[in-house]
Design goal:
disordered C terminus; alpha+beta; 5 helices; seven-stranded antiparallel sheet
Length: 196
Amino acid sequence: MKSKELGATFQIPKHEMQVDIYLADGNRISGKLFLPILSSSPSGFLPLLEVMNSSTDFFPFLPDSSNETELINKNLVVQVVVDVQPDEIANLMAEAINIETNWVEQVEVACEKLEVIVGSVFLELPADRARVLDFLNKPTRFFSVKNEKKDHIINKKFVTKVRELSSLSLPKLDSAKTPKKETEPKRRISKSAKTK
């Protein structure tokens, strides 16, 4: 089906997002993925992660190498990669800065047929259950790992292992430039030095 014909079938306004899709057969395809327009969203359209986690099994995709739209099976998508917008991570942190149930975890994710992905995951979990294990066991197919340049929407089905690197509570991010483990000993030494 031609792209124009598909557009005539799906009348709901869509936002076109340029992405790279990594498939289970080892192929990578680049092109446009279509996101529903959502005026209530800060971006103006439904987030990519929500689209990938919707109940539907297929989504329309227009490859850069063709003018014909294809229907891609989510179950065979290893990851969808999109460029991170400037200040996107900072904005996410700012929105959650006063919410104690949000945490940032630095992780290393290994997937089948892919190199290791390193980045941040945002945990919207109570403090007593703010673990990567709890996050990964949530009943969703995909999760997001962000770094400075890319947002990786990863299919849990193809994850072989995850390693936790560090974690930060969002309300403390302003003071997180220097790791806590390094600053505390220095403060103890300086205090004891003054008492001598």
